[in-house]
Design brief:
161 residues; mainly alpha; two-stranded antiparallel sheet; 4 strands; 59% helix; elongated
Length: 161
């Protein structure tokens, strides 16, 4: 069963101790003096260490090398991929306006270069989406999940090894 800490003066309203979204300092609440200390009314309570605000925790995570690595891996894929796709799209638009004769050249029957290039835009979008999902799965998801768990543990006040 989940341990619940009642705040003084609020009567029946209570919050779970391990609620990661509760920021005691921002809401004006907080733990009573000695809450969780040995000899408390709750014998199985774990002594708590200094409670950091959510902002401090997230800034600490943001400065961590693990977060910087995840962010770096994301940027190393997204920026070049977005630039390449943008250039490919702009080349299609410029070719359609600057070289209408080239784009109107038939390839097979009524299918012309413009139609092939337009369909290639859709194909490129799907391929880029697949490549992004694959890159995320192989290079970032595990590290991001580990960061998420670490952050949740920190917001719960659990000491990190």
């Amino acid at each position: 069963m989940e341990q619940v800490d009642k705040q003084e003066g609020l009567g029946a309203s209570a919050r779970p101790v391990d609620d990661p979204w509760y920021d005691a300092t921002a809401s004006g609440g907080g733990e009573r003096e000695g809450a969780g200390a040995p000899g408390d009314s709750c014998p199985d309570a774990v002594p708590r260490q200094r409670v950091h605000s959510a902002a401090e925790i997230y800034l600490e995570v943001q400065r961590s090398p693990a977060f910087q690595e995840v962010r770096s891996r994301y940027r190393r894929f997204v920026f070049p991929a977005a630039l390449a796709f943008l250039l490919w799209y702009l080349a299609y638009v410029v070719a359609a306006t600057a070289a209408p004769g080239l784009m109107a050249r038939p390839v097979a029957g009524v299918v012309n270069v413009a139609m092939i290039a337009g369909l290639a835009q859709f194909l490129t979008t799907f391929l880029l989406t697949w490549a992004y999902a694959r890159h995320a799965r192989l290079r970032r998801d595990r590290a991001a999940l580990d960061l998420r768990w670490d952050t949740q543990e920190m917001t719960r006040g659990v000491a990190q090894p």
